[in-house]
Specification:
Helix 5 packs antiparallel against helix 6. The protein has one domain (10-152): Trna Endonuclease, Chain: A, domain 1 (3-Layer(aba) Sandwich). The N and C termini lie far apart (35 Å). The chain has 154 residues and is α/β, with parallel strands linked by helices. It has helices spanning 10-23, 68-84, 95-98, 110-116, 119-125, 143-152; strands spanning 26-32, 42-46, 52-57, 99-106, 127-132, 138-141. It has a 6-stranded mixed beta sheet. Strand 5 (127-132) and strand 6 (138-141) form a beta hairpin. It is 38% helix and 23% strand. It has 6 helices and 6 strands, in the order αβββααβααββα.
Length: 154
Amino acid sequence: MKKEREIITEDFVQIALIKHLEVNGWSKSLQSSELWEQGVDIKVRNNKYSRYWLIEAKGDPSIKVKNPSGSQSSSFNSALGQIITRMHRNGKSGYKYGYKYGVAFPASFRKMVLRKIPFDVMDKLNLYLFFVDKTGNVEELDWKKVKVIKISSK
C-alpha cells in the first residue's frame, strides 16, 4: 500500500512563520494575506527599527496532484516571481536597509529549492528562505547559510 504524503498547507506555513517572526522581534503592524489580499502574503515591521519583511508563502500541493514535484517547482517559480515583483528601492540607503524579502515553503520543498536558487542571487536581492516542518518549526536561511550548505553538499 502506498504511503500518503503529509500536506502542509499555505495557511499553516504562514501561521508558523508569523510565530517565528514574532519571537524574533518582528510583529509591529503585521499584515497577512487575509487583510492585504492584493499584496504579499506577510508584511511585518521590526519592533525596534524601521525595517520590514515582505514574505511570499506557499503550501504543499494537494493530495490529488499527480506530479507533486512538478507542482512544487511551479510553486517555487511563482513565489520567486511574486516576491521579485514587490521589490523596490525607495530611500537613499538602497533596498537592503528598508526591506528584507523572503519566500516560505513546507520542509518538503527544501532540497529542490536549495538546488535551484543561487546564493549570490539571494545576496543581491536580500532574499531569505524559510522552511516549515509539520510541527511548525521554522528554518531561516540567508545567503551565507545557503552557500555553506551548497559547498558542504558537493
